[in-house]
Fold:
Amino acid sequence: MKFFITIVCGIVLSVLIPFAGMSQAVKSDNIIPETNMRGGKYPQILPNHHVVFRIKAPDAKKVQIDLGKKYDMVKEGDGTWTTTTDSISEGFHYYSLIVDGVTVADPASESFYGMSRMASGIEIPFAGGDYYALKNVPHGDIRIKNYYSTITKSWRKVFIYTPPGYDVNTAKKYPVLYILHGGGEDERGWAQQGKTDVILDNLIAQKKAKPMLIVMPDANIGGGGFGEDGLKAFANEMKQNIIPFIEKNYRTLNTSNNRALAGLSMGGINTLYTGVYNTNLFGYLGVFSSGWIAPSQKDLANAQYDYLQKNRAMVEKNLKLLWVSTGMKEDIAYNNCKTMLAKFDELKIKYTYSEYPGGHTWPVWRNNLYNFAPLLFK
Amino acid sequence: MKFFITIVCGIVLSVLIPFAGMSQAVKSDNIIPETNMRGGKYPQILPNHHVVFRIKAPDAKKVQIDLGKKYDMVKEGDGTWTTTTDSISEGFHYYSLIVDGVTVADPASESFYGMSRMASGIEIPFAGGDYYALKNVPHGDIRIKNYYSTITKSWRKVFIYTPPGYDVNTAKKYPVLYILHGGGEDERGWAQQGKTDVILDNLIAQKKAKPMLIVMPDANIGGGGFGEDGLKAFANEMKQNIIPFIEKNYRTLNTSNNRALAGLSMGGINTLYTGVYNTNLFGYLGVFSSGWIAPSQKDLANAQYDYLQKNRAMVEKNLKLLWVSTGMKEDIAYNNCKTMLAKFDELKIKYTYSEYPGGHTWPVWRNNLYNFAPLLFK
Structure:
């Protein structure tokens, strides 16, 4: 113990100190989001889905909430800052607190890995969100597993959903959906922000989806996901490490018709690169809020269109489903997606297009999973 | 979609923007902690385990790093603030960033639930920390599972470690260690801060510990952990919900000699309350950095000492091990623990006392698990 300082974590003390700015009563028709810290009364959702944020910051000069749109908070006499936002749409949204220009996670909420850092999340209740509500149905497990990558020469994490009954029906083998996060996110995205386990538990209970494994890898590899190096590195990681690891350690059906690959945003680009060039491996592809990026990925896009032109018959034979979706016109990927689909039309590549309002956000992607999973492994 | 605003998450943009204050090269003998955000060059650990923190905050008046001791950061010309800490001891430490008086998580590091909020963590490498290093040995899974509590009438999460081979040896049943987090933490503590899976994988590979399940519940129940209401609520939750759920859904050996209960800090108090009064259920108890708190828990302590005096023979017959540990004199629980042990001596209650330097911190608790697990289920 050569280098040693005593660090008092304040663990015990901190639970005895009421959280700053939380002494107000909650109005009975207001909602405390499930993403709040345990016992925290703010943020608080009004019945019209405007959100009230509060934070104690007597020494700060300027405090803002950033929900894509920035809201200036107003200082009250006791050093508490508050703001009420516009009405916020259903489901999960990232947000940040900005204190005198420094963007951080709000200590009042749970944090989620997104925007390349731990960012705050807020869950807005939604009448139509019943499909991602925890219910009294059989539940699967989310497993966190370490595997060794021969490409990065390091241990990497993968999250895996195993469906209800997996531990009991030990002779049964299952199809596998591999599903990819977006840029600035990682293997936690679909399990946490996406509520993948809850969505699948509910679909399986209603017999709308087949029991399946869902594998959520970390697609950040090869120095970045949007360039060809990153895309190629991930394709190799899937083929050389992830798929073999999963098929060795879990009871899986190992044919292309029992493998699907899908991803959102950057993960959609990975799906195009890893999936379209490997339809011998994947019978089903899902491209959510994505499409080759103009103009930076022009060469990658053209190479793929050439490939499709030359191999249309084989791709068509192999692929049982190419499912493409956006969060409609407010989705930052909308134009790229539509441009790509126009090219698919020109090349007579079959696909299914679906859209759901909400832009480039998790509420849309949860809904994508809810609609995509029932189409798989028929 | 009555209430709707468009939120651009900045996901795509954020991965293209280099992180503030991270343009400096890393000196070859400096260490980038594994807790840094992907690609982040700060915090940076010098060879003598002093830590350099940097953050861009041109508009802030005062910026500090709080590692138990507060370090004032110094502003440089470009609005970057920096500080170099004292030498920091081995392993995992919580820390905070303070921007103009507002305590938040540092966006440069991973966040962990502790101090009743998402707090930053930094992992200091340690020559003796080999026992919690990921190695090429068979690995178990960490599972995240939802169960329904009849006490809270809500779904709650529990983390479960299943050992290597659990999926393959489908006839084998396993003993179970139930292990509890501290105040201001939750079911994630032992899995994330504690590296429970890695520690057990290594112990099992060396045949130092028996393959076992480790169940990590959320002990925050009944309105707070230190009062009798909270302690009683957790004891009931264990008996009525958690143990039955685990034994129904996993292949467990269901006798007291195949059940252990341990906890750190508040979790140690829970262990005393749930464990000492239920030695018919648990053959092994571990009390880490804990002990009845003087004077607030005087009545609870005296009631337990009375119980032990009256039931010494039964408790002694039931308990194969009562293992008590502290982080030595710098541990905030040290005096409470020593007072309790003096009382145990007076009552002729057998226990094993162990200590390890580091105070009231996770490096100590990881080491506790490393030393406690091999003693179980002999």
Remarks:
- The domain at 4-125 of chain B is CATH 2.60.40.10 (Immunoglobulin-like).
- The two ends of chain B are 60 Å apart (CA to CA).
- Chain B has eight helices and 18 strands.
